């Protein structure tokens, strides 16, 4: 396992930054570009390991995908041009690829085996396997299809009306994608609205979908046409630097061209609620997504309660919010976030263990954590547990620690943000 020494420099964060393309939208651009007929051109595609897995999966089904950095060209004949993959497909660390791909494969007359790395192999797949079986897909796998490796044989499906038992955009998306191969309308009724990039992107490809608050209905047998997609900057990546600027004294940072889709901006609401000095400008709409800029300055922060409908709007930001809370006056309580236990690591346990190790006062609860601030952090050893968001949280923590920090397994950051350390160096005042 490699280690990276993060020096305790404590220099302010200053300047302007654009972050790489949104991971969720990049995955979906490949999926819909492959399902559509004709050419799709994607700019600002996230060149991270997870999104490359989605490209590889569709290449394995015969789709022509050319990639030059963040520029991707997909030439597809649509699903009728797909071929049965000859080999099992390796999904690496990517939960989004696994679950959304299962939704597509449910409708294709192929036998496909999917597997992943240790982390992905331990993440639950039954949440998508159950509704896809209900629609008629033949699925088997470890522990009766609860976990990868999974084999699927798809085909013509029966449309269903489905209430997901968990708040998950991946489950919603898998069922909607399978719905394209159904025999009438497929409906997903969510208890809380989760990120809606699948719904937005389907429409960008000329598809039809009806969204009535948390009830989404998709007709079967649509003909989708290739298009151009300009991927907004990833607010989940931006969140690390927003928190850095909020907690490192004398900082001021502007992040440009970042996605501000309201299903993803819980981090902005949290920063505002804590008293951060933050200004958000919504500048333009592209393909159903909102793009704009965020400016933030360091300021005094207060502990808050975070729960309910806010959680799905910031689920991937909770590790960095936990660090933020260690620098806020008073107690921060995070509830209703049990889904964190099923991410790349058990993010309740890994956040708590890591921050405790760095000197924070934080304890785990079943569905969240309780953090007492304002604490000064010591530094020491920070284990990423192979989880990119924990790795980046440790790197931001090291900006305010008294001593150096050893980050264990920094490479995992390449999953979602390969240029993380160079972007960080660019905004650290020399
Ligand atoms: O793809 P993966 O590994 O599941 O990625 C994560 C992340 O932190 O990048 C979660 F671990 O993001 C998910 C997110 O938590 C991406 C996602 C999507 O693109 O639809 C939805 C969320 O997951 P879920 O389980 O709530 O649907």
Widest beta sheet: strand line-up = 2-15-17-16
Mean pLDDT figure: 97
| Counted beta strands | 23
**Level of helix content?**
25-40%
Radius of gyration: 21 Å
Largest sheet report: 4 strands, mixed
| Number of separate domains | 2
**Total DSSP helices:** 14
The CATH superfamily label of the largest domain reads: Enolpyruvate transferase domain
β-sheet strand percentage:
25-35%
Helix and strand composition category: alpha/beta
Reading off the top of the CATH hierarchy, the class of the largest domain is best stated as: Alpha Beta
N- and C-termini, Cα separation: 30 Å
Bound molecules: ligand SPQ
Shape: globular
CATH topology of the largest domain: UDP-n-acetylglucosamine1-carboxyvinyl-transferase, Chain
Runs in which pLDDT lies below 50 for 5 or more consecutive residues are none
Structural write-up:
With 430 residues, the chain is of the alpha/beta class. The chain folds into 2 domains: 3-21 and 232-426, Enolpyruvate transferase domain (UDP-n-acetylglucosamine1-carboxyvinyl-transferase, Chain, Alpha-beta prism), CATH 3.65.10; 23-230, Alpha-beta prism (UDP-n-acetylglucosamine1-carboxyvinyl-transferase, Chain), CATH 3.65.10.10. Helix content is 30%, strand content 27%. The chain has helices at residues 23-35, 49-59, 95-105, 118-121, 126-135, 142-145, 169-179, 197-204, 235-247, 266-273, 318-326, 347-357, 388-397, 420-427; strands at 3-6, 14-18, 37-43, 64-68, 71-77, 89-90, 111-115, 138-141, 147-153, 161-162, 185-189, 210-212, 215-219, 228-230, 252-259, 277-286, 289-297, 305-306, 330-334, 361-365, 368-373, 380-383, 405-408. The strands form 6 sheets. A 4-stranded mixed sheet has the order 2-15-17-16. Strand 16 (277-286) and strand 17 form a beta hairpin. Helix 5 runs parallel beside helix 7. The longest helix is centred in the N-terminal third of the chain and has 13 residues, at 23-35. It is globular and about 60 Å long. The model has no long low-confidence stretch (mean pLDDT 97). It binds ligand SPQ. Ligand SPQ is lined by residues 23-24, 50, 94-96, 168-170, 173, 195, 315-316, 339, 343-344, 389, 416.
């Amino acid at each position: 396992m490699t280690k990276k020494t993060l020096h305790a420099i404590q220099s302010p964060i200053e300047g302007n930054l654009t972050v790489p393309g949104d991971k969720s939208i990049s995955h979906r651009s490949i999926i819909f570009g492959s399902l559509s007929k004709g050419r799709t051109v994607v700019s600002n595609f996230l060149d991270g390991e997870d999104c490359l897995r989605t490209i590889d999966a569709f290449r394995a089904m015969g789709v022509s995908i050319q990639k030059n950095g963040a520029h991707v060209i997909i030439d597809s004949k649509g699903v009728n041009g797909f071929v049965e993959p000859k080999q099992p497909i390796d999904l690496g660390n990517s939960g989004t690829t696994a679950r959304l791909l299962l939704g597509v494969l449910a409708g294709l007359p192929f036998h496909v085996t999917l597997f992943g790395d240790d982390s992905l192999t331990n993440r639950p797949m039954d949440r998508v396997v159950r509704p896809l079986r209900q629609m008629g897909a033949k699925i088997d796998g470890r522990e009766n299809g609860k976990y990868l490796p999974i084999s699927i044989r798809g085909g013509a499906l029966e449309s269903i009306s489905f209430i997901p038992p968990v708040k998950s955009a991946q489950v919603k998306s898998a069922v909607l994608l399978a719905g394209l191969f159904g025999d009438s309308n497929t409906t997903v009724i969510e208890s809380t609205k989760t990120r809606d990039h699948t719904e937005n992107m389907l429409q960008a490809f000329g598809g039809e979908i009806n969204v009535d608050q948390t009830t989404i209905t998709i007709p079967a047998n649509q003909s989708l046409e290739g298009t151009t997609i300009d991927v907004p900057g990833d607010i989940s990546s931006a969140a690390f630097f927003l928190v850095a600027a909020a907690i490192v004294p004398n900082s001021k940072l502007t992040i440009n061209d970042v996605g501000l889709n309201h299903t993803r901006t819980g981090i902005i609401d949290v920063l505002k609620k804590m008293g951060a000095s933050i200004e958000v400008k919504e500048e333009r709409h592209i393909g159903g997504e909102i793009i704009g800029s965020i400016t933030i300055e360091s300021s005094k922060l207060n502990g808050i309660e975070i729960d309910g409908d806010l959680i799905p709007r910031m689920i991937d930001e909770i590790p960095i919010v936990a660090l933020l809370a260690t620098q806020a006056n008073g107690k921060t309580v995070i509830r209703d976030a049990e889904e964190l236990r099923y991410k790349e690591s058990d993010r309740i346990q890994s956040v708590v263990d890591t921050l405790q190790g760095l000197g924070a006062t934080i304890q785990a609860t079943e569905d969240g954590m309780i953090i007492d601030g304002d604490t000064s952090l010591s530094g020491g050893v920070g284990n990423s547990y192979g989880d990119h968001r924990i790795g980046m949280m440790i790197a931001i923590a090291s900006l305010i620690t008294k001593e150096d920090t050893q980050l264990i397994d920094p490479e995992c950051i390449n999953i979602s943000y390969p240029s993380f350390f160079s972007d960080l160096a660019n905004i650290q005042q020399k």
